[in-house]
Amino acid sequence: MGVTSSDLYDETDAQRYDEDNVSVSTPEVLNPMLDVLAELAHAGKVLEFASGTGRITVPLVNRGLDVAGIELSPHMTAKLREKMPPGRLPVVVGDMATATAPDVGNYSLVFLVFNTISNLRTQAEQVACFRNAARHLRPGGRFLIELWVPQLQRMAPDLHLAPVQFETNGHLVFDTYDLASQECMSHHYRPQPDGSVRYGSGRFRYLWAPECDLMAQLAGLELESRWADWSRSPFTSASPSHVSIWRKPEH
Ligand SMILES: C[S@@+](CC[C@H](N)C(=O)[O-])C[C@H]1O[C@@H](n2cnc3c(N)ncnc32)[C@H](O)[C@@H]1O
């Protein structure tokens, strides 16, 4: 596989990431996630694809887990390094669709959260990512994904645009969709203290849970659980996102 289709998080993105994501870095948000991940790890090795600045991996290591990461951006990894040294949390800077972490084949859990499978913007790379996860797992190990459900029902049809989020701090998000190619672009508008608005965008390939299941099947993985959230609520047609877990067969 050649060069990744993912947008690269540059130094500015890395500098802003933790501050922009304060609302999803609180103990109230993180603890239910960390509880599930720790339980699924069964005290074995854990690998995060797209480990970023360590929002999840650093607290997992602090809970005593044996964790590694694969992350495309050296800038995001440099921010993680300000929090934890490589001896405690090894990170391979590379593409999660192709890169190899130490102890490949020995992980009890590989996880990919915060919708990041969609940062791979071709179907072929998303399939490769599932295969790469399966390759890293020990027999009986699990691959977990947290992914939003494309909100096409919210779309203004003539505009191909859907409102996604409006937070009390004024942070506004719209997504634009190209239905033919399954491409999506998120547009973020963040009010600044000086009264200006900072615009940022990200490009994604959206996919539904059943397409994930097909990719898992191609990678030799079997669906074990699908929840609407980290407290294991049932996934329904109204659920805006899902947490899905596939298992690598023992034999
Ligand atoms: C929304 S952030 C999530 C970071 C972290 N998982 C978290 O939950 O805070 C997305 C991350 O995915 C990384 N990323 C994007 N494409 C990638 C790829 N092909 N391989 C590895 N990492 C990738 C970005 O550099 C960025 O750090």
Automatic annotation (TrEMBL):
Start and end residues of each Methyltransferase domain:
46-141
Recite the lineage of the species: Bacteria, Bacillati, Actinomycetota, Actinomycetes, Micrococcales
Q: Give the UniProt keywords, A-Z.
A: Methyltransferase, Transferase
Among InterPro entries, the record links this protein to:
Methyltransf_25, SAM-dependent_MTases_sf
The UniProt GO MF terms for this protein read: methyltransferase activity
The name this protein carries in UniProt is Class I SAM-dependent methyltransferase
According to the record, the residues making up region (Disordered) are 1-22
* Recorded superkingdom: Bacteria
Q: Which Pfam families match?
A: Methyltransf_25
Q: State any GO BP term from the record.
A: methylation
Q: Does the keyword Transferase apply?
A: yes
